[in-house]
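Hi L.,

You mentioned the student needs an example of a multi-chain input paired with its predicted structure. This one should do, with 810 residues in total across all chains.
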Amino acid sequence: MKKYVLALGVVGSFALFSCYKCHECHYDENGSEIEIGELCGEDLENAEANGYAINDSTTVTVHCEDH
Amino acid sequence: MKKILFLTFLLIFVQGFGQEISGVVREAGENGKPIPFAKLDFVDLGQIVVCDEDGKWSFNYQEKGIAHVHVEAVGFERKELDLDLSSLPPIVISLNIAHHHLDKVLVSNDGLLQREKSITNVETHDMYTLKQNGAPTLGEAIENISGVNVTNTGAGISKPVIRGLSGARVLTYVNGLRIENQQWGADHGLPIADVGVGGVEVIKGPASLLYGADALGGVIYFVDEPFAEKNNLEANVQSSYYSSNLMTANKAGIKWSKEKFKLSVFGGYDNAADYTTPSGLQVRNSRFRQQTAKVSMGYNSKNSVTNFRYIFYSGRIGLPGHTHDSIIDVSSFLTTTQNRTRNTPAQVLQNHFAQLEHKLFLEKHELTFSLGNTNNRLMEHEEKITIPDINVNLNNSLFNLKWKYQLNERLSLTVGSQNMVQFTVNDKAAPEQLTSDSRTIDMGGYVLMNFKKGKWRTLLGGRFDRRNIAAASDEAFDYSGFNFSAGFNRIGKMSDFRLNVSSGFRAPTVAELLNEGVHHGSNRYEIGNPNLVSERAFQLDGTYALHLDDLELIINPYFNVLNNYVISVVTDSFIDSYQVFEYQQIDNAILYGADFGFHYHPHHAHWLHLETSFSTVFSEDLNNKNPLPNIPATSINSQIRFDFDMNGWFQLSHFAVQHKYYFAQPRVFDLEIPTGDYHIVNTSLNALLGKEKSLSVSVGCRNILNTEFIPHLSNLKRFGLPDLGINGFISISYNLKHKLKKQ
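Structure written out for the whole complex:
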């Protein structure tokens, strides 16, 4: 029976498999790419949805895709 | 209302006064000895029964009626028969000793669709055979079927093409459930993975009569692995690795079966990085990952079977062919770093498929009703990793009813109804919208007459369909059409002959009528055409098959006439830097060709199998003599397989070499790119280990010559991107089987 529990555990582990959620991001300024560094999870989602605040008054559009 | 409630009660709960059906399996001939541990698969009932050591079997089920059974035993020829359960027990089944047996690779008269419904030649294949040369995905597996090709977008997206027809013209079924996943898009691939799939059956050509009006090009019908043998627990774990895209494919399943209740659970996870071309460079963003979970439950009562099946699929599939380079050539899409992190552009998919099916068997009646729901969420990410630009949900609810009445030994009547309500809803938060919000209602009814006498069988049927589309913009569309199918076959011991004429009707889809916007997956701007009318098809299809002791031959020519054929035409306009494509119709077109198969298994070399199939299709717009778009190249698929007969703890099972030759395809539509010919060679070696042969190891290499080729139906053709280069693989599988105590 232990064998079947083990097999069931393998099936379950597929469902719980997690993936890498962080990305290197940058924004464009005067024709050049300014690196921001790694953004992860909710920070990444917020930056893509609302822009990334580089200071109190400036929010920029970020690019996190791999080129 | 009372009548409806009564009918529902009758369908679900009526139980016959059943008794134990019993019998014996023995060798053919007078005084044939009992055959121990022969396996009886009651196909329609989903029950597998194993004989005891005296060849005896028993089955507590149906009082009367006919049950289709596959009977197998080691050292004996497999038998397929219709068992009359009203016979007095013990029912005796006799098997012939297998002195020399040629597996039916090409000629099948016993597939689910063939036996029940279709008079035409139906290709029936088990998934193990289709994948024995290491096909990494379901799409590549079905491309081994003669007359079936796939349109691919890198390694992660494959879409079936039957005799040159694809998209909304080819229906995908999984265990009787019609799957809807925005098939109109060339980049919208197969909506399932191969987890728990036992086999596939393919109907080539119009199959509207029984599968729905849209089946103008044919049907791909996936069949799940059967439930475990009665009173058994079975488990399987498999892990595979492919070198070209560093792909890992892992899957596992558990199957449990008692006297009446059966349960199967499967799970799988595939993860692939960008694939490597023959030059050694990687195609950027060709990575993908997909996960699947599947649950099947079955309950057998005295004279009915109820099955519930649920499939979950989710995937993130990279869309190659994207660049920010100002000067673009093929190097713009290639990279030297092989990556598997999520990226853009990409498709993110989530599918939920659920089906409840109930079959009721009475003496001369068989009643089937099924309820289904398919939900497909498609998100297309253009620039942002986490936020989709398009987010559209397609929800489809189905209700089917079928009544089969055996009028007498020779004549049966089938009457059915298939109904579908479909909602397409865009997420308003997404910045872009391609397909219009809409509601589609399909209703269809059919009648089928089946006549059998000796070796001859005749089938005649008609169907009426109606489609109503209501768009959010208050536009409404109404289509209706009548289809028929008529044919006969003669199934002999050594040869089969089939001839069939059938018509098809396909109403335009919402996408073809009302699309307006950027389609990131296809890298184009699409404009629908609300003036489209229904497509129609008329096909003549013939098959001759020869089945000797050591040779199989099959030839299957066809001729298909198409009216109002819908195509997507490239224009010289651009919107938002995307080239504009519009839907148009070709008044009259023809498609004709043939599939040919050959299988030789010489008497003097039982260990050798030679198989070859040839497939060709020719198309023409009759008005201007131009070819139709996206017609596959002619191909020859050959395989030589050595089966080893070894005993002991380590057994080599087989060694196979597959050679595929694709001819050049110079006959192309306006602005379509022609392609050259190419050869691909795949090899595989399989071994079984252990006392019970529980462990199976396969190693091999796909495209072992590292040939650089661009498939004619590749969506990456316009970027000049070749397919995968040399691709080594290893696959390890472990099977467990445990007998359960009888209650």
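You could point out the following to them. The beta strands of chain A are 22-29, 32-40, 52-53, 59-60. Chain A has one domain: 19-67.

Best wishes,
N.
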